[in-house]
Task: structure prediction
Amino acid sequence: PSNAILDALSIGGRSILEASEAMQTSARVFALTHRELDGDTLSSERTDFFIKDERGLLLVGWELPGGRQASFFSPPLILLPSDLTSGHTWAGEGRLGRASYRIEGAVLERFEMQREGLETRACVTVDSRIWINMPRETRPVRAQRVYCHGLGLVLEEELDPDGGPTSPWRLASLSGVGQV
Result:
């Protein structure tokens, strides 16, 4: 990862892991690489960096291959709060490079999911709205995501600001998002 991402993973000049030990908490840092194919050709790639701690699952930032471009949230953006009670809401704001951001999220529902021959999993559906305010425009991003215990992110759908789908539900990678 680039130095910008590594710096974002620090608190008070100490690594996030050192800081979590000092606070007697446990934090996990992990990365997830997204690759999109156009036929047999890699069309895009991005690596996202996350922290999972007592606040929940937080997006620190992302990096394009070879460290070409790195962007990070300060403070990290809460994607999935630690309180997963149906109806729970959260909000936050901060910086994303030179832009500012604001997030509003809600836990829509909790449910059990079982697939034939597999164990039952506790799952949660989360709705999030993020506004990225750049010097000349504001980019709204809205998504609904399903996270399941022991699997992490399993489904996601991007929505327009009014709630209409802009992409169909996508099955997310089951290997690398971390456990919920």
Remarks:
- The longest strand covers residues 99-113.
- DSSP finds two helices and twelve strands in the chain.
